[in-house]
């Protein structure tokens, strides 16, 4: 039986790379997107072209009230597409960047970061637990900024730190069901995340490249295949870990 993975925020960037890497590894994917169906549909088309099954479903991971209706739609989709009542893997990837110095951070900025990156991860996972198959996997996305500090990222890094703690508790509580839970913490990546700063601002790109052992910032395809490999049977004993994928950033 093919594995089914939900990748939140799977329509672009790291999410897209992850979804397509999972498909290349032989898995099927549910891609969630917040507003850009066209981008999500292109990912679904690429996965189907690779011979795997995929669907795109709308989801705002910052809106907790939408989680129960999403779970019901997911249940129907699993039955109609896969003739199953469960899925196997959840990748909590969806997120956004909103950076400001501590002195300048607004309550609205802070609340949105918490809602999307921590509260959303917590309660979406809670909502979907009945649908995750025993022996499944959960991967939560964090950041290299929880280990090394960079001005302007305090609120973002703090909520990602909370996700790392949550990961360990999920691993402990879900161990009886054989569900492994890990954190993947990327370093600086060239995507449109945070307005595309790392990708488009040459000075920022150069700065992060200079503090990275491999001498460059990352690309989405430096991350997606790693997450796909973490979901493979060969990594079934990896659990409750924070795995940084940064090319040696800030060492």
Report the sheet-strand fraction.
15-25%
Shape: globular
Give the helix/strand class.
alpha/beta
Q: Please work out how many helical segments DSSP would assign.
A: 8
Describe it.
With 251 residues, this protein is α/β, with parallel strands linked by helices. The chain has one domain: Rossmann fold (3-Layer(aba) Sandwich), CATH 3.40.50. Helix content is 43%, strand content 17%. The protein contains eight helices and seven strands, in the order βαβαβαβαβαβαααβ. It has a seven-stranded parallel beta sheet with strand order 3-2-1-4-5-6-7, with helices on both faces. Helix 1 packs parallel to helix 2, helix 1 crosses helix 8 and helix 4 runs parallel beside helix 5. The protein is globular, with a radius of gyration of 17 Å. The N and C termini lie far apart (42 Å).
Topology, pairings included?
Elements: E1 4-7, H1 13-24, E2 28-33, H2 37-49, E3 54-58, H3 67-82, E4 87-92, H4 107-128, E5 132-141, H5 154-174, E6 180-186, H6 197-200, H7 202-210, H8 220-230, E7 242-245
Parallel strand pairs: 1-2, 1-4, 2-3, 4-5, 5-6, 6-7
């Amino acid at each position: 039986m093919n594995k089914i993975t939900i990748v939140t925020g799977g329509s672009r960037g790291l999410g897209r790379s992850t979804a397509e890497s999972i498909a290349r590894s032989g898995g099927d994917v549910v891609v969630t997107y917040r507003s850009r169906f066209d981008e999500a549909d292109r990912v679904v088309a690429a996965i189907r072209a690779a011979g795997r099954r995929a669907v795109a479903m709308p989801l705002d991971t910052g809106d907790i009230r939408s989680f129960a209706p999403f779970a019901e739609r997911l249940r129907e989709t699993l039955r109609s597409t896969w003739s199953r009542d469960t899925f196997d893997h959840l990748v909590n990837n969806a997120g956004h960047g909103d950076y400001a110095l501590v002195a300048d951070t607004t309550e609205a900025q802070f609340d949105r970061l918490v809602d999307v990156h921590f509260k959303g991860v917590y309660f979406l996972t809670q909502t979907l637990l009945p649908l995750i198959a025993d022996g499944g996997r959960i991967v939560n996305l964090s950041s290299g900024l929880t280990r090394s500090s960079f001005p302007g990222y305090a609120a973002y890094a703090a909520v990602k730190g909370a996700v790392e703690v949550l990961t360990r508790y999920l691993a402990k509580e879900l161990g009886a069901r054989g569900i492994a839970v890990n954190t993947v913490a990327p370093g600086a990546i060239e995507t449109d995340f945070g307005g595309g700063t790392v990708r488009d601002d040459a000075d920022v790109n150069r700065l992060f490249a200079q503090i990275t052992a491999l001498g460059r910032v990352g690309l989405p395809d430096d991350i997606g295949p790693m997450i796909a490999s973490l979901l493979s049977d060969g990594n079934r004993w990896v659990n409750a870990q924070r795995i940084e994928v940064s090319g040696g950033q800030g060492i």
